[in-house]
């Protein structure tokens, strides 16, 4: 793999990371509903999920999803149901907090956000299929496949991790500006809504 090929892949990864999708929506949802610490934990989970998804794709699982409508649908709906369920839990907790003396505690913890986005990143079907269709274009057949695959995986996860961090910090900062109890309530509701929209976007994905 030449340096120019690697640089083109890094730039393409950055563009993909900047385009809002289910992953970005879930990170923004955590940031608005639970704050910076939880949002950054969700970014770490998304990086781990992307690493697993890309590794599975390069091992051939993505090709199975691309050709099997049943497998694609199973992965798609599993991820969609999870995100929508998490969004509903966030909305329910924000409602209960509003009924009593609402404190600043996050409705979703950092560990739950991390594990949740590991699942989102790993099982988002469009991501896996994208890897299968896109990544091989940058593989040099005359060079070591393992080395090139590892380099592309690390590059993608690092670049998209940076763009996800930007989204997380910007969204959490915007949420902190809403310091009144009523504004905090609506920010948590907005976070839950973003997770539900993320799930709907996953459900709408087509193979």
Automatic annotation (TrEMBL):
Q: Which UniProt keywords apply?
A: Cell membrane, Membrane, Transmembrane, Transmembrane helix
The record's annotation in Pfam families points to: LysE
The keyword Methyltransferase appears for this protein:
no
Cellular-component GO terms for this entry: plasma membrane
Question: Which InterPro entries does the UniProt entry name for this protein?
Answer: LeuE-type
The record's subcellular location field reads: Cell membrane
What main location does UniProt list?
A: membrane
Q: Which residues cross the membrane?
A: 6-32, 39-65, 71-92, 113-139, 145-170
Classify the protein's membrane topology as the record does.
Answer: Multi-pass membrane protein
Gene Ontology MF terms in the entry = amino acid transmembrane transporter activity
Q: What is this protein called?
A: LysE family translocator
């Amino acid at each position: 793999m030449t340096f120019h090929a690697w640089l083109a892949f890094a730039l393409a990864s950055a563009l993909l990371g900047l385009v809002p999708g289910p992953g970005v929506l879930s990170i923004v949802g955590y940031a608005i509903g639970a704050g910076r610490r939880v949002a950054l934990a969700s970014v770490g989970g998304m990086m781990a999920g992307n690493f697993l998804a890309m590794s599975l794709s390069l091992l051939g699982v993505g090709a199975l999803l691309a050709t099997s409508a049943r497998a694609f649908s199973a992965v798609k709906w599993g991820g969609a149901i999870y995100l929508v369920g998490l969004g509903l839990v966030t909305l329910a907790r924000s409602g209960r907090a509003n009924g009593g003396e609402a404190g600043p505690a996050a409705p979703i913890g950092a560990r739950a956000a991390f594990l949740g986005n590991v699942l989102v990143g790993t099982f988002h079907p469009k991501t896996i299929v994208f890897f299968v269709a896109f990544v091989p274009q940058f593989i040099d057949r005359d060079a070591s496949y393992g080395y090139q695959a590892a380099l592309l995986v690390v590059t993608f996860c690092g670049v998209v991790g940076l763009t996800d961090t930007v989204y997380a910090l910007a969204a959490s900062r915007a949420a902190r500006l809403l310091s009144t109890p009523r504004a905090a309530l609506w920010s948590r509701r907005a976070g839950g809504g973003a997770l539900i929209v993320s799930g709907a976007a996953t459900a709408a994905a087509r193979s």
